[in-house]
Amino acid sequence: MAIFLNPDNANFNEAVHSKIYVDKTGLIEYTNSVLSTTAKFICNSRPRRFGKSMTADMLCAYYSKGCDSRELFQPYTISSCSTFEKYINQYDVIHIDVQWCKDQVENINDIVNYIKESCMHELQNEYCNIDYNGIISLSGTLSKINDETGHRFVVIIDEWDVLIRDNADNKKLLEEYIDFLKGLFKGSQPSRYIALAYLTGILPIKRTMTQSALNNFDEYTMLNPGPLASFIGFTEGEVKGLSNKYNIDFDRIKKWYDGYYLNHQHVYNPKAVVSLFTLGVFQGYWAKTSSYESIHSLIQMNFDGLKEAVLEMLSGNEVKMQTTSFQNDMVSFKNMDDVLTALVHLGYLGYNQTYKTVFIPNEEIRQEFVNSVSEDKWNDLIQFERESDTILEATCQMKTEVVAKQMEKIHNTYASNITYHNENSLSSVLTIAYLSTLKYYFKPIRELPTGRGFADFVYIPKLEYKDYYPALLVELKWNHNVQSALDQIKEKVYPQSIQEYTDNLLLVGITYDSKTKEHRCKIEKF
User: Fold this and answer.
1) What is the pLDDT of residues 4-44, one digit of tens each?
2) How many angstroms separate the CA atoms of 161 and 286, rounded?
């Protein structure tokens, strides 16, 4: 059996017979719809352990002439699609796992030649009656076979970007690799012999100057997943189904592992969810599958505003981000936005497409950020944690004057980084003020729909701390008296939806007077 040409369905067969398998075969309906059209060039990037290789194996199992997969796919969504029988196992498939290929060469500089020659050898063995005299490239071989037979190919490249991530300093290698991909996929001849090209990796296609090196590809990323959003990770409905099957509280799953929001869909990390249902323990799973340095080295970069942005996100806020300057590699960082964009692609940050903001998606990843900034003993973090400990303790003890005084102190300290006199700045100040809650509480819920309105911030204690710390429902008011904040909580029946989490609930009203610069606080036990 060949290594690259027409793989069998063994890998996908193993996946569907695992303890937990979530049906993602609906993606094939989309790829069938673009076969042999101008939309047939697809690059679908997503973080590690988000099912990249399983998707590649699924596409191989469906399209490859090297197997009969009808029975394998019969229980799943694609079998009811009108194009299911038309395309199943009808194509010569070339499957290249670049990470695997790296391990097959002693010298990394030989990898492009290894891929090219191996694929050419297998193709020429399969189509041995064709004269390949003078042909020296993989693209030339494919073109010749297409000219002689009319056959079109499905090319699937897994971990397409591993050289760009791991060998970024080897410019000669990267240029050779990009040129190889251009020759394989760009131009009029590739359009003739390619039925479908599917690239998957962590990073989008490398940019040359201002445009993609393969600008004929449609790119679906963590910034803009397009029609593939529901096939990147597990959807909320899929996780709810698993929570019912394994009898694990969905709300708790959501707090720990939800957070990616793609095309108005909540998306969960598959590795974390599968590990939870397999082991039954709430802890960080996904973060442990990669080097801690992948996040640590990035957030230690000395770009203006980066540390402040991390602190804001740790506290539960979202931060504005521009994505246009990121070059889709791990070396060409010019500013804070490039670092934040890289962290989105790596899966350490979520992205809000509507507001162009980034945020720490869930409790699992928030702990990774905490570990990173704590190890370096950031002065800002130490300072705000110290002040925040005082505020949290005073809040729990209902010492309103202490809360107001500490809020004012943090507001004055933090004002240089944000606009001082508006409601948004007060929100930022409040989340920084309650920074120490991250030890005992989940990420604060911003504008939680409750009763007949929206609570500004809701802090729900983690299960292991719910007997020691109250839930906090915090209403912010700018240029209002402090009683009006509490009145609004009561009028809009905010607390009712909080009671399902805990009976121990404090209503906290905080106001700021822009003229006197005074803060007021009032706390009541519900």
Assistant:
1) 999 999 999 999 999 999 999 999 999 999 999 999 999 99
2) 20
Q: Nearest 5°: phi and psi at 203? A: -95, 150
Q: At which residue do the structure tokens 């944690």 appear?
A: 385
Cβ–Cβ under 8 Å, residues 235 and 59: no
Mean pLDDT over 55-80 rounds to 97
Tens-place pLDDT, residues 184-217: 999 999 999 999 999 999 999 987 655 567 889 9
CA distance linking residue 385 with residue 378, whole number of Å: 11
- Sign for the pseudo-dihedral over CA of 335, 340, 341, 343: positive
- Give the angle 384-389-392 at the CA atoms, nearest 5°: 115
Tokens at 15, concatenated: 């996946």
DSSP category for residue 283: S
Residue type, 119: C
pTM of the model: 0.87
Residue in 462, 457, 456 with CA at minimum distance from that of residue 439: 462
Nearest C-alpha neighbor of 216 from the set 457, 40, 465, 446 = 40
Asked whether the beta carbons of 315 and 431 are under 8 A apart, the reply is yes
Q: Give CA torsion, residues 368, 371, 374, 376, to 10 deg.
A: -90
